[in-house]
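Q: How would the structure tokens look for this protein?
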Amino acid sequence: MNLLLFYPTEISGSALSLLAERARWVAETFRPGVGDSLVCGMLNGKIGTALITSVARDEICAEVTLDRTAPERISGELIVGLSRPQTIKKVLHFAASVGVETVRLVKCAGSEKSYLDSHLLKEDELNTELDLGLCQAVDTVRPTVIIHQTFSGMMRGFLAGSGNNAAVKWVGDASSRGSDNLPLVASPVVSSVPFAVAIGPEKGFSTEEISTLCTQAGFKPMSLGSRQLRVEFALSALVGRCISTIPV
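A: Here is the predicted structure in token form.
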């Protein structure tokens, strides 16, 4: 991990106090000693350094200096078909790390019904996974995650939101199904920002779902070739094309 992310309730003035499970997690992850300096950041706040002042089993204390802002958000929205919890964890890590604004997780025709009952979709669990992505990327602002129980409900939400105004909207398929009938992803031009990217679950979007995205929301179908990809790999491939033109 590259960032010690803490919460506003854990700091008073410049004094940071991490207790119980939080202290043990920091100890296992960073192995800090007294006098060590760690890159830190407050959730939804600034980034800086934490000078460790004491280390015990159930409490770690530090003096914090916050002196720079978090990275800017990327004007991107992700639509991802509900998949296995382990896959969705990786999607959340990726979304938080890359800095997109919104993630829509949707129950598709190809999603298992049980996925909606996963503990991962509870707010605390979602935030835990998002925070791991923030720690990797040295960021402090979580993406907004929206859970849609139906594809039609997702479409209504997307069409009413800012993502519908994206300059580029791509729908991809992690499976190789129908790849011969879809164009290969081409390098985008600068106008590709902001963007919206949609990826189906492991079984892919249904033909009807792809058609709905294209006809109602203006998505363009994109093939990732003839190889069967994991959902998170397909997502990162398409998003990588979109953000490759963002100025540094």
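The first helix runs from residue 20 to 30.

Residues 184-192 have pLDDT under 50 and may be disordered.

Upvote if useful.
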